[in-house]
Write a structure and sequence with these properties.
It comes from Melospiza melodia (Song sparrow). InterPro entries: A2M/Complement_sys, Alpha-macroglobulin_TED, Terpenoid_cyclase/PrenylTrfase. Pfam families: TED_complement. With about 170 residues, the chain is mainly α. The protein is built from 6 helices and 4 strands, in the order ββααααββαα. The strands form 2 sheets. It has a two-stranded antiparallel sheet. The chain has a two-stranded antiparallel sheet with strand order 3-4. Strand 3 and strand 4 form a beta hairpin. The radius of gyration is 16 Å and the shape is globular. The two termini are about 15 Å apart.
């Protein structure tokens, strides 16, 4: 577990809850998102420094799709439209479109097995990264554009298809 103390508020994150991605950018994005959701202003020194680190990470060519989704949401919360758009554009190229819905999956993943009487449910990391993309699309200032809302509805369709019979999700988050 990692802990960060900001203005008397202690924030703890379990490093194992990183969608299978173990790098500093992912952990920094989690912490930055938490700080921005408190909400701490983007002018706060800790947030400003974290966003600087995330901008550096966002410019790396080989970011994992999960990391890109987290970064897109962090920049959306921070109001950085250019970084948000660049990451969403990159994620759009990696999207999986199937049955009128859109989602993201881990690179090199085996194709889903279509078995009779069995409904495939994606691993929790894929539900989480797709949800972060949805949050990034809907967290826009000013309000999301019509095309973003249409795209968001296709993502929401996939996420809702991943619900278990009790209405929950297979997720660590």
């Amino acid at each position: 577990t990692e802990a960060l103390k900001v203005g008397g508020v202690s924030i703890c994150l379990c490093v194992s809850l990183q969608g299978g991605v173990d790098n500093e950018a992912t952990l920094t994005a989690y912490i930055t998102i938490a700080l921005l959701e408190i909400p701490l202003p983007v002018t706060h020194s800790v947030v400003r420094n974290a966003l600087f680190c995330l901008e550096t990470a966002a410019n790396q060519k080989e970011n994992h799709v999960y990391t890109k989704a987290l970064l897109a949401y962090a920049f959306a919360l921070a109001g950085n439209r250019d970084q948000r758009k660049a990451l969403l554009d990159s994620l759009e190229k990696e999207a999986v479109r199937k049955d009128g819905s859109v989602h993201w999956q881990r690179p090199g993943k085996e194709p889903e097995a279509d078995l009779p009487f069995h409904r495939y449910r994606a691993p929790s990391a894929e539900v989480e990264m797709t949800a972060y993309v949805l949050l990034a699309q809907l967290t826009s200032q000013p309000a999301p554009a019509q095309e973003e809302l249409v795209s968001a509805s296709l993502i929401a369709k996939w996420i809702s298809s991943q619900q278990n019979p009790n209405g929950g999700f297979s997720s660590t988050q």
